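Researcher: Go.
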Amino acid sequence: MDSLTQIVLGASVGEAVLGKKVGNKALLYGAIAGTIPDLDVLARSLTDTVTAIEWHRGFSHSIVFSVVFAPLFGWLVWKLHRGREASWKDWSWLFFWGLFTHPILDAFTTWGTQLFWPFDLRLAFQNIFVIDPLYTVPFLLFVVLAMCYKRTSPKRRKYNRLGLLVSSCYLLVTLILKGMAYIKFTDGLTEQGIVYQQIDTRPTPMNALLWTANIEAGDAYLIGNYSFFDTSPIQFSTYPKNHHLLGTLETNDKVNRLITIAEGWYTISKKEDRVFFNDLRFGLISIDPQETQFVFSYELIPSATGISVEETPKFDTDAKRLLSSLWNRIWGN
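Model: Structure:
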């Protein structure tokens, strides 16, 4: 999830673990703990594009990381405050839950997380977008309300628990909505006589009302959108796989690693002599059925050592185009 959401979750978890003893310090250090796993983004400036993608939500989002580093961070905070209000064990427990709940929440997103690192198993339930105001805003309001009361006040604990409860219930609702959307997609495919091998569903940006599906159908992928306000049959757009355009790059190590990262959901496109690898898991730049630009697209550039991989840049106009098309499509237009 986005940084604000992880800060709110971390703060709430910190309050639940240690708020009665240390008050707002629990919120502060919980928020810090909730932020730490995402520092893996610094890898972008230290290594190549493919490796940075592999590292993202890897080791720092694992149970191993939480177990190993929680006592270290707990000890540092315990020494900082000279052990006056809480013990080393108390602070370590706070950091463990702050670090651990971060990847748990991320597991519900499209990108997922390697919770069981070093085992090659990425959990991605794909029932919530990385930014969802309906999850974050109510949660934030409850945490702010909790902050307004003294650490010993029952109302402080009540509001914090309400924040955790409401946000968790929303996650459960999105799982139910995902199941309902899946049924709509499969029914639509059956009604239209479309034969397919597999289907992958997820919510569109910042909401849980409009869902999108990638469908593997032979030499092409189909992409369809379904809103709970729709009154017309689902329309599916076709995107040829074009895997043959890789040519000799098909055996390249970086390309194979990209294929693994994309879990096989990818197309290859060519513009003049430039070859692009498109990761389908995160969809298109806009909801327009005629859209051809994918959110995550990587140019495969020949180099002396094989190829270099560069992510296609995104622009402010892309976000505006997405939000405009998203708003209209949510309401069934």
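Model: The chain has a mean pLDDT of 95.
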